[in-house]
Amino acid sequence: MELVVFDLDGTLLNRESEISDYTSDTLKLLTERDIAYTVATGRTLHGARAILEGHCFRLPQAYKNGVIIWHPETRHFSRGATLTPDELDNVVRACLTQGLTPFVFALDENNESIVYHPPLQTDIERELIRSIGVEEPVKVRAFDELFADATITHVNSIGASEAINAVLHSVKDETHLVAYSGIALEGQQWRWLDVHHSEASKGGAIRTMKSLLGLDRVICFGDSDNDLSMFEAADESYAPANGNDRIKSAATAVIGHHDEEGIAHFLRERFSLDAP
Question: What does the alpha-carbon distance between residue 244 and residue 255 come to, in Å, rounded to a whole number?
């Protein structure tokens, strides 16, 4: 049997960061045919839960680029590699040097997310922290409340392209860190930044999920650099037309644009979902 794995932003979701009605109907058809599917996303669980609700995502799911795997049936996390205090300090200093606010994500003793951050500096950062509070009752704390031995899953930031690129450059030689960036809002200058431990990846996460579920093959979909490890681990990999050049080069094939329901159209053809 096969496991279908979706990236979310720029892939399964449209430009409004939603699952369209046509894509929703396609997921229902997959469920009816007993075709297993899940997500591997750079988002946190709280940033994806409302989007996925009602679309039959019942299998283990990879969040923060494979740093953690969420098990819906038992409602617990499996943890991947986390950041050391020194690694965290390097990322935080790099962000602050560029005038960016680092959002430090940690897990408490109950595996619940806590976000720590210094004072916010821009309107786009205020909107980000507002959306975190609206989407899920995640604990938000001042940065100086962060414990030295806290379990740090990743660090996010958001800001102008020049500042984000400078942070990417400053951490690229850190052996145990991996950093990704992408467009935060289509048509605008803002970019997001995500930094986590190099031993955590979407590729490692889908290999784990494949083993957990006892499935033979993986078919995956993604549009950006953080999907490359997943493409390497999969048997088939597909990039939407809006994907970057690196991911398109690594793909089995390039398919339709994410904002034109390209993944849903491909799935219907690939699995003959429209057949009577």
Answer: 13
